[in-house]
Structures are given as structure tokens and as C-alpha cells.
UniProtKB/TrEMBL annotation:
Residues 276-338 form a coiled coil. Residues 199-266 are annotated as: Disordered. This is Uncharacterized protein. Keywords: Coiled coil. Residues 230-239 have a biased composition (Basic and acidic residues).
Amino acid sequence: MSTFPCLDFDLKTPACIEWVSNDATQYLVDPDPQRGRVMFESRFSNETSSASFQLHCPVRVKGIESQSHIICLIHTSSITSVDYNENPELPEIVRKKLNCKAIRLHLEFCQPLDLIAPAAATEPVQPRKRLSGQAFDSLRSLAKCSALDIYIPAREVSQTKLTAVREAICRGDLKPLNADIPALLASLYGGSGGKVVNLSAPRDRPSVPSNDEPPSYADLEPPPPPDDDSSPHSKDKPLLPDTTASAGSSKTKRRRLDDSSTSSDVDTCRDIWDTLYHMREEMQGLAKRVEHLEKENTDLREELDELRASCDKATDAVESDETALLEVHEELDELKMQVDFLAQGGLSSDAEDHIVETVTNSVLTHILDGGYNTKITFEKS
């Protein structure tokens, strides 16, 4: 079994996707909600020499209250070519979204991407909001392409790993990490499961021939107003208005408008609550950080006070040692002077008095011991 020591290619990073459809360059950059990010995920197993590559696009789908995402599964065995550019010329939309130095991965494959949605999404899978509808349009086009470019931050992966991935795929050494598709689908979305879907056009789109591309969500226009002038009755034979039918029709139309307005209001409220929830999480995180910084500041202040006290003690000890050292220097200087004086044969007055006193006492003691009655006077010269 072959192994790839350099192919540690496990990452999940923000990405921007570029491909060509009908001779026009398309991008998948802005998901729904816009604060979300399109993600590129790759995983690698050295034991089985297998890998997987996925794109994640946050969207809001019908049947799921919270935001979710559509997974674009790139089949490892279908990749025919991989290349990369470390210094690509970034399109303006990519540069603004990533806001950093980026690497462009170029993939070509012989099998279209599979689009996977949460198993709880209603059939057919439809977007809940207009922005999700635009993301659906991009995903629908992306699923039909045979080549794409993936822009990712350059800091996420090294040239050595990219070269190892390219060589392994070109040699055909990599196997699908999740060859068992049913098991893979069951493990997605936190264990709630996913399903392969074919994103259909909205229900309110006009019918078009099967060989024509349906219009995008951004190109949809509201239906024309009803024609009030058309009437099955003759103008020459006026009829009394049917108040019951008019009231029922009015109520029915009003109910539909109310339902649409209620749905829009619910989506707006949900967006507001999502925003408030994330703001609350950020505020809680900031509060914890401030508390941590305050505690760290208190600890630093205590440590600074201890250092100041130690410095004061050290300063007092140094001053005391300097005083003692000065006294020792003075005593040494005085002792040196006395030594020099004695070395030159001189005697100090104290030494002379001590010698005279010693000799006098010695002579007197000798005379007294010898019995002599003699008076001897010594004069100091």
C-alpha cells in the first residue's frame, strides 16, 4: 500500500468558486445568510490512501426552520486533473470576499458534482428566501460544470502538500474516502442524514422547453395584474353585482396576501432573532474576555507591588553595605598609615609613653627586690 507522508490535506476553509457556464464566468461567493461563508473541505486518510473533497454553501431551505447548507460532493475517482497557482490574479469579487492572499486550485472531472441537502428538507427542495434562490441558481449551474476553480487563503496549505495532492491524483493513487454513499449520507448534518437532490426551478416560473435554461431567481418578475375589463357578460345587459361572491373573492385574496405577509414577517423576525443571538454570543465572549483581562491586570498589579517592595529592600541593603564598606576603607587607610610609620622606625606618642612606663615599672621593681635605697629619676627626653 502506498503512503503519502506529505499529503496531510485535512482542512476546512472559506472559499470562492469560479466556473464557466454558457461561455460566461460564474461565481459562488455570497450564500444565505451573507454573514455565512462558502467553505471548501478536504479530508485524507493515509492508512487507506483515500481522500474526499466537498463544497459547503449555507442556504435557507423550506422544511427547515434554522439555516442549513447544501453540500457539493466532488467524487475523488472522477477528478482527472488538478493544478494550482500560488499567485493568481484575483477577480474583484473574490478579492473583496477573501480579503487576503489566495491560492487558486483548478479541478477537472469526468463526473458531475452531486448536490446533497438535509433529509428533513421538503420535496422538491426549494429556497425560503430570494437570496437563497440566487444561491440555488449558482449551485444548479455548478452541478453541470466539468471544471472549476477554487480560491482559498494561501495560509491554509503549503506548496509541498499541493504538489503531493496533484501528483497523487494524476497517478490515480487516491481512492474515495466515502465509497459507501448511503453510509456517507446517513452521517451528514450532525447525524440527521442527507439526500442527493436535483434542484428544480421554482413553481411560479413559466414553462419553457426542456432544452432551454430556466430563468434565474434574480430575473423573475411579479405576475401581471388581473384584467378587470374582461367579463363574460354583455355590455348591453348589465347585471347586479353578486355581493356574496365578491365578498368571498375579496376574503380569499386578502387571506393570500396575509399569508404571504405573515411568511415574510416570520422570515424577517427569524433573521432578527438570529442576528440578536449571534450578537449575544459575541457580547458574552467579550464579557468573558474583559473579565479575564481584568483578572490578569490585577495579578500584574500585585506582582508589580511585590517587585517594588523587593526593590526597596534591595536598595536599603545596598545603602547599608555601602556605609559599612566606607567605614572599612577608612579603617584600612588608618592602619596603612600606622604600618608605614612603624616601617620607617618611628613611634607614636602613645607607644613612647607606654615604653617609658613599662621600663620605669621594671627598674623600680628590680631595685625594690634588691634592697637598694636609691632614688632614681628618669627624665623624658
